[in-house]
Amino acid sequence: MSNAYDYTVAALSTPAGESGIAVIRLSGAEALGILSSVYRTMGGAPHTGAWEHRRVYHGVVHGRGAEIIDEVVCAVTRGPESYTGEDTVEISCHGSTLLVSRILEALFENGARPAPPGEFTKRAFLNGKLDLIQAEAVADLIHSRSDLQQKVAREQMAGALSRRINELAVEMLDLLGIIEANIDFIEEGIDTIDYRAAATLVGAHKGRLRELLASAPLTRPFREGYRVGIAGPVNAGKSSLFNRMIGENRAIVTEVPGTTRDVLREPIVLDGMLFILQDTAGLRGTTDRIESIGITRAETTVEEADAVLFVVDSSEPLSADANTRFARLDTKKTLVVLNKIDLPAAVTADRLRAARPDIPVLAVSAETGEGVSDLLRALLRHAADSGLAWIARERVVLNARITSLLGSALERLEAVESGLEKRAPLEILAFDTREVLSCYESATGKRYTEDLLDMIFSRFCIGK
User: Which of 10, 74, 212, 431 could cross-link 26 (Cys pair, CB 3.0–4.6 Å)?
Assistant: First the structure.
């Protein structure tokens, strides 16, 4: 791969706004020439001689004429050993929005262009510094909100997923080489393919590919957070539990039934994993139009949640409606939370466990905090059982683009396997094998289109 760009770009790489320092990045063939045009030593002299690789320079940036804009530190990295593979300069200046704007203006006046979102990482990809999976992991690292997201992004930046897909690609390339070599001997009636061995290889290949694809459903809860719906009858203490779990009084708590009308969402991180807690309206029959809307939203939240905390008030007998809902709880994603255990008991955990032995029951007091740590541990186990532990162990996660390509590869692989069993014409086997290989190469970026790159790098921030 080579960078087709013949122009130099510049952008602010630190967040916009006032700060102690700001970093402006400059990259391209003319980066060092542009730096020479705006840089002066602390004594006011222009820089002479070559800019040294991996050297930091202390001086000033000036605008038109001899006007000093700011005192700066310039870190120079020459291509191809820079992040982008091009000559790159990172200018550290004072974090005034006015100073940043004026330095950028000086760079633009001397030939640089404003960098669009993701431009620097896009150039790194085009110059072979990163493959496409690693480039996407850069954006994942920037947007990470939990330790696990950060660790997985770092692993994928280091090439963990790329290596697994490249290993699959090499295996298909070897098979394709055998098939295509035999095509040349068709007229001589020579057939040297070991169909049984090839079918065994393809079967094992499918197993590894399916293992990767098995993590695809985990992509959404991993990236966006594991959604936890807090539901149950009115006045069961759902909002109090929500506040206790997030550590602040976010939800309004009163003794008036139906206080919560909308869904409140707050993130928490448990053992490095991101959870999105969702407090919902109390579930009951009502003729109040506004409360009815809240209940409908609560039911939708429960349906779409990855886990549900069904909260029951231990100090009051369950109503007929609550008993009906309790009997219908989804075994796979529900934890029953018996709240208000600091009050005299009308309902016990043993009674609930006897009624639904297939669902865990946790006894807590949102008022005092008793049992809440056990609830959080149970929630972590539930998430681990759902498969997120696989991501935590393997440090691999598939985005929608890679999932689609690997899914297509599996379909074509089925055709290869079928063709080997039926001794299909070698040209057809070669075509299907080549299609599998094409999917792998598209995943890592050995094959790409400009539209695809524009779509991927548009989700980056400016300056990265």
Answer: 10
For 374-410, give one letter per residue: b (16+ CB within 10 A) or e. ebbebbbebbeebebebbbebbbbbbebbbebbebbb
H-helix or E-strand containing 421? helix 400-421
Does the pTM exceed 0.70? yes
For the chain, give the mean pLDDT: 88
- CB contact at 8 A, 146 and 390: no
Residue found under tokens 């800019």: 51
Quick: pLDDT tens for 413-458.
999 999 999 988 889 999 999 999 999 999 999 988 888 888 888 8
Q: Which domains does the chain have, with CATH numbers?
A: 9-130 (3.30.1360.120), 135-215+398-445 (1.20.120.430), 224-391 (3.40.50.300)
Nearest Cα neighbor of 53 from 86, 21, 22, 24 is: 86
249-283: b (≥16 Cβ within 10 Å) or e: eebebeeeebbbbebbebebeeeebbbbbbbbbbb
